[in-house]
Structure formats: structure tokens, C-alpha cells
Amino acid sequence: MNAPDNLRYQQSHEWIGTDDGPVPVGITDHAQDELSDVVYVELPEVGATISKGDPVAVVESVKAASDIYTPVSGTITEVNTALEESPGLINSDPYGDGWIFKLEVNDREEFASLMGAATYSGQVG
Amino acid sequence: MVPFAGWEMPVQFAGILPEHRSVREAVGVFDISHMGQLFVEGEGAGEWLDSMLTNNLATLGDGEGQYSLMLNDRGGVIDDLIVYRVSQNRFFLVVNASMRDADIAWLGEHLSSGVDLIDSSAHFAAVAVQGPKALAVYEALHNELGLPPLPARNGIAMDRNDTTLVCRTGYTGEDGYEIFFPATDAESFYNPLLEAVTDAGGQPCGLGARDSLRLEMGYPLNGSDLSPELTPLQSGLGFFCKLDAAPFIGREVLVDQKENGLPTRLAAIRIVGKSPPPRPHYPILAAGQEVGELCSGVLSPTLGQGIGMAYLPTPLWKVGTELEIEIRGRRFPAHVVKKPFAKG
To answer: Where do the structural domains in chain B lie, given as residue ranges?
Structure first.
């Protein structure tokens, strides 16, 4: 299973970027594999303010619909509209072109509650 | 893997979409060992079965089969099944895994003297091979596996030793067959079959693709689309209920419904444009009012659009009726269409 070192992870299988400025959020390689072919993504609204743990998007495969929870609080600055036409990007490139939304983070301290790549990889084993 | 009627069943192997496509375009193999297999044998077996099932069994010759329904006293569906006439006094029934015990109990309760009901479900493993290349797979394999010549559509053939049955039926809308063989031989049977399927450009398929394939054809699934509280006329299966042939349990209710009208009918519904995949129990609205809920739903891999089935008040049951399907508080336009949704 693939989990890049420069990202942070949470139990419900979302990842978040750690660079300065708005950071992307998506689902992990493990999550996309469990879901199988993603056929629909319900994106949040740009400008929405969201709190850590809120369900903000929905990723659906043929077999199930999964809520996507934001790993930290903030304001949504951008959504990945390419997923409307090509939801399969989540399967083919979960940490790249398959990002779901970007977030202006309120408080970087909240990252402390998230897992690093090694811990997350250990959890999903 | 998911639990299904006491079995551990694969939802998917490579993925529901590629599996679905491989059945539409090449060939797929499904493990259907969970399905129930019953034999009904003895003097008068045919006449008795005809009194238990809605279709007209008297029209079957040896080696022929038909889709039929078993109803309760209220005309509601206990199970839908395929019955094959092996010989004059010997019939083979393939029933739903989830209803096998109920079917056996109901048939047993009404059994006529001189007729035997034999549950062979534990004896048989079974596979369904479906798709445009299913026949080529049969050609390549039948000698090696000792299979009888492939029967005609809806027909049944047995090998010389009476241990393996081949039925030219399926649940996908594609040509193909179902093979019932001793469970003790499962591996030696399945492995060469899987190899032949793979050689033909196919793959193993799970319950997920089985559901999307059958729903594209508008085939009902018992437990989702059929119910002991609804008659097969309401479910759009009137063709399989021969009211002018031998009487069967539940017939009076159907005759009465036919004269006085059906309160609700199963409609095929297609979402217009893009939407999340429709799923069972999503509410359906007409003119802003809730009028029912989906009993089956899927994003059709062939059409790339949401399709589903729902019982609607009869006045709304006509092609073109405009509806909305509510998904997580949002409403998506849909309309009633003709079955099948996609061509097999």
C-alpha cells in the first residue's frame, strides 16, 4: 500500500497536504482500492467553512457511498471539478489528480491529531 | 466477501465495472453454487407442480425449461424460479438461495402423494457462464469436462452419468449457460473452466456485476423487487402467469386484480443526465409529492446513467412519466422508461 511521507492521514482514510497555503484533501490508496471503481463524486461548495470531522463530500462506487470527512477545520478554496467528468481519477491517482478539495486551514495545530505515513500504513496493514 | 443467504459471496474480483463490461463484450463466469436445486419426481409430478407454479408447465417437452413463480394464498410471490422438464415425471427447479428453505417448506406442505421433493442443493456446485463468447468457451471445454451437447435456449441437458446438468439460461441478458456439477468435483471443474474463460478474454465475476447486469435487463430480484405482499402482475410478470391454464395457488387473486385493476406497478425508471448512483430506498417524487421508493437501483455501466425500479401508483406507470429521485436531499429528474434499460 502506498502512502506518501509528505502527507498526513486520518483513521477514516482521508489524506491532507502539509505545504503552505491552501492544502489538498483526498482519499488514500487503501480507501480507493476498498471502494473499487469510483463512479460519482459529490463535491463541496467553494467558500464553505468546515470544521474538523464534518462530512463534506461523498465518493461513490458501484457498491457503496462513502462520506469524506475533513481532517482539519478551514475554508474550501477550490474543488476538483475534473472529478465530475472523470471520477476514476480517484482510483488512478489518489494522491495527485484525484484530490477532492483544497482547504485554507484555520489552525495548523490541528495537524498534530493526524497520523504520519508510517503510522497510517501500520494501521491499514 | 459478503454474507449472502448463509454463503460467503464475492461482491467483485477485478471490479464491478470491468466484470460487467466483460460479460457484455466477451464472457464472464459466476459462481452460483448458493442457488437452490430441487428435483420433483414421480407419477403426476408435472400436474402437481403446475398447481404450485404460475406458468403453464404442460407446454414443456423433455429438456425444456421456463421461468415461473410460486405464490402464496394472497397471490404474493414466495419465489421466482426456473423449472426444467428433465423427463415426463422428473423436473429440476433452480430457486433463490435466500428462499430455499421457505420454498421447500411451502412445496412440502402441499406435496401430492406419489410425488417426491428432493433437495439436491448441497450436492451441486454451479457456475453461470455468460456473454457473447460463452458458446466458444463451451466448444473449447465440453469434451474435457465430459459435458453433454449444449441445449437450446431455456433448455436442459444431462451427461450420461446423470451427474452434471447444463441449462441454457442465465440472469444477465446475454447468451450463456449454467452448469450444475457435484460439489466434490468443484475445483477440478472450475479451474479449467476459468482458464477457458480467461483465454476467451473473460474473467470471474461477483455479485455486484450480477446485480448491475440483471438490472440493466429489468429482471427482478426476489427480496428487492418481488414480495409476498405484491402479485407478479404488479411486478410486470403477467406473461409468466397463465390464468387460462391449469389453476395454481394464488390464481384467484390475480384474476381479481386483472378485472379490478392493480393498485401499484413496478416501473423501470431512468435518471436524466448525471447523478449519484441510485440505490434501494431512495424516495421517488411526482409533482413534488413522494409516491414511492426505489427497490433496486444502479448506475448502469452500459448507459452511464442511473437506472432503477420502483412500485408506483398505476396512473403514474406509463412510459414518459416525469419523476424525481431524491438523493441526500437533492432531487434528480428521472422518467419512466420501457424495459430493458440496455440491450443484452
So the answer is: 2-213, 263-344
Name the fold adopted by B2-213. Answer: Gyrase A; domain 2 (3.30.1360)
The interface predicted TM-score (ipTM) is 0.80
Whether the CB of A40 is below 8 Å from some CB of chain B: the reply is yes
A52 in any annotated domain: yes
Say which amino acid occupies B291. V
pLDDT tens-place string over residues B251-294:
999 999 999 999 999 999 999 998 999 999 999 999 999 999 99
CB A68 within 8 A of CB A55: yes
Judge whether A54 is closer than 8 Å to chain B, CB to CB: no
Cβ distance A58 to A90 under 8 Å?
Answer: no
Q: Which of A32, A33, A35, A37 to mutate to test the interface with B (most CBs of B within 10 A)?
A: A37
The fold for domain B263-344 equals Elongation Factor Tu (Ef-tu); domain 3 (2.40.30)
Contact list in A for residue B4 (CB cut-off 8 A) is none
The secondary structure of B17-48 as a DSSP string is HHHHHHHHHS-EEEE-TTSEEEEEESTTHHHH
pLDDT digits (tens, 9 = 90+) for B147-191: 999 999 999 999 877 789 999 999 999 999 999 999 999 999 999
